[in-house]
């Protein structure tokens, strides 16, 4: 779907008009390309903890240009700020304020990344207040940054026990990369002691088999393409009515198409049978299929209410129960489910949808221990406004408002969600489990 306003506002006349009238001026976002360097520019590093120094050492070892001082005309791609050592308000003040000049000089489409302690790790009242206080800084700075730049945080959920901080560095790398282009004002809690495997940067999913539901179109089709590009063999699932579109996506990427309505009671059996027939096990599952049936709660019939819960939540619960411990489960299963910012903040006309999307956040939280025991992980992504057929059905005026109401002043693209999922299902995200990461350009409304 095209965003004509964005296209116009980036013409010379459009830019003048936006400046004169104070209109939103969304900047074209630079998106991920595996052929380009994964960390696209110089990084200014400001911090002092052992964990921070280890991240810097890891990046330098991978030939990333990390500096401790900036020359007057330097425009860093990213500013990496470490305040995980801060236990007092004074230490936090110092840690953040010393980054001010560097933040001012950050490049277009740049990044500010703050490493801090997860509040659960803090001991004592002041240290806890400081850890939570960091979230206010990152969220506000993300609102203030312009020209496509974003701010995000990585939170340590455990005290690093050795010099091995691969999972922490991988999370920082994710935020440094263009994979995270539509993620802003968010936090990724990471267990720094989960080292994960050495990651093949170009094909991080090589040798993996990935199930993707709702793969015939929209975000699901883009997830299928992205996981395939990253090396996975994709098994795409969709309803029989979408069979032609599903076949076309799967043919394009050399994947396998399985026509199943996921709400059918025997859907897990059918999917497992299709895998077994080809001698495959699923290392990755992405529960993407979803529907909306919007109406005010008082006007909604039971069919509209229940069908959304069936597709978006109940079908996933049934699948997961049958999948974990089955003979088609891969050795270290990584699962991602699609939530929504509506599931976090609620949305008028979407009581049914919000139940289902908040429900999957609960599913993820309560399944994390089981997935960890199986050597894997389960996480959710919560997209905001993404340009798809689903959102093209929103009435024009509402759609135009929804698309501008985030810090990046534009809708995301299906590939923006797909890139985040591709990170979460890779070994690079070994330290991330039970989390919900928003991909919403920092929606200004709601939570
Ligand atoms: P879409 O409507 O374009 O595509 C959904 C796909 O799921 C379709 O191919 C459809 O046939 C399939 N599907 C529906 N019911 C199914 C069933 N019972 N069995 C198998 N397949 C089924 O939607 P989209 O915009 O690409 O959204 C994908 C996911 O992202 C959904 O879970 C949606 O709730 C979520 N999401 C989307 C947005 C957005 O802005 N587009 C925002 C937040 C969350």
Automatic annotation (TrEMBL):
Keywords, in A-Z order: Oxidoreductase
Classify the source by domain of life.
Answer: Bacteria
Source organism (scientific name): Micrococcoides hystricis
Query: What residue stretch is flagged as signal peptide?
Result: none
Q: What is this protein called?
A: 3-oxoacyl-ACP reductase
- EC category: oxidoreductase
Q: Which residues form the Ketoreductase domain?
A: 208-384
Name the protein family.
Belongs to the short-chain dehydrogenases/reductases (SDR) family.
What does the record give as EC number? 1.1.1.100
Q: Which GO terms describe its molecular function?
A: 3-oxoacyl-[acyl-carrier-protein] reductase (NADPH) activity
Listed PANTHER family: 3-OXOACYL-[ACYL-CARRIER-PROTEIN] REDUCTASE [NADH] (PTHR42760:SF78), SHORT-CHAIN DEHYDROGENASES/REDUCTASES FAMILY MEMBER (PTHR42760)
């Amino acid at each position: 779907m095209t965003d004509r306003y964005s296209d116009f506002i980036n013409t010379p006349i459009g830019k003048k008009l936006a400046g004169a009238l104070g209109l939103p001026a969304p900047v074209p976002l630079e998106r991920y390309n595996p052929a380009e360097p994964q960390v696209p520019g110089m990084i200014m590093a400001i911090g002092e903890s052992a964990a921070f120094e280890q991240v810097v050492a890891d990046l330098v070892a991978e030939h990333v240009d990390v500096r401790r001082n900036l020359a007057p005309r330097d425009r860093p791609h990213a500013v990496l700020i470490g305040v995980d050592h801060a236990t007092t308000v004074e230490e936090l003040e110092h840690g953040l304020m010393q980054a001010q000049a560097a933040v001012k000089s950050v490049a277009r489409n740049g990044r500010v990344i703050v490493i801090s302690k997860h509040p659960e790790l803090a001991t004592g009242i002041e240290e806890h207040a400081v850890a939570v206080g960091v979230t206010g800084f990152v969220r506000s700075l993300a609102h203030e940054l312009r020209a496509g730049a974003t701010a995000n945080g990585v939170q340590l959920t455990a005290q690093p026990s050795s010099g091995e901080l691969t999972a922490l560095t991988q999370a920082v790398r994710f935020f440094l990369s263009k994979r995270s282009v539509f993620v802003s004002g968010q936090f990724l809690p990471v267990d720094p002691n989960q080292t994960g495997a050495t990651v093949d940067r170009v094909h991080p999913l090589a040798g993996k088999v990935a199930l993707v539901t709702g793969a015939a179109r929209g975000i699901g089709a883009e997830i299928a393409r992205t996981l395939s590009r990253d090396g996975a063999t994709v098994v795409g699932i969709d309803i029989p009515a979408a069979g032609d579109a599903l076949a076309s996506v799967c043919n394009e990427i050399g994947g396998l198409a399985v026509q199943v309505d996921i709400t059918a009671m025997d859907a897990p059996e059918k999917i497992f049978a299709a895998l077994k027939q080809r001698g495959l096990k699923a290392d990755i599952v992405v529960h993407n299929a979803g529907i909306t049936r919007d109406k005010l709660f008082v006007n909604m019939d039971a069919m509209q209410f229940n069908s959304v819960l069936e597709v978006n939540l109940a079908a996933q619960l049934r699948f997961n129960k049958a999948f974990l411990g089955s003979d088609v489960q891969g050795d270290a299963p990584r699962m991602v489910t699609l939530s929504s910012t509506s599931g976090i903040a609620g949305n008028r006309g979407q009581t049914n949808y919000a139940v289902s999307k908040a429900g999957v956040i609960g599913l993820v939280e309560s399944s994390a221990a089981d997935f960890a025991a199986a050597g894997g992980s389960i996480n959710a992504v919560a997209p905001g406004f993404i340009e798809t057929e689903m959102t093209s059905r929103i009435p024009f005026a509402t759609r135009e408002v929804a698309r501008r109401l985030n810090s990046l002043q534009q809708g995301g693209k299906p590939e923006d969600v797909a890139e985040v999922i591709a990170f979460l299902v890779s070994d690079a995200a070994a330290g991330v489990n039970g989390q919900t990461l928003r991909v919403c350009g920092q929606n200004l409304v709601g939570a």
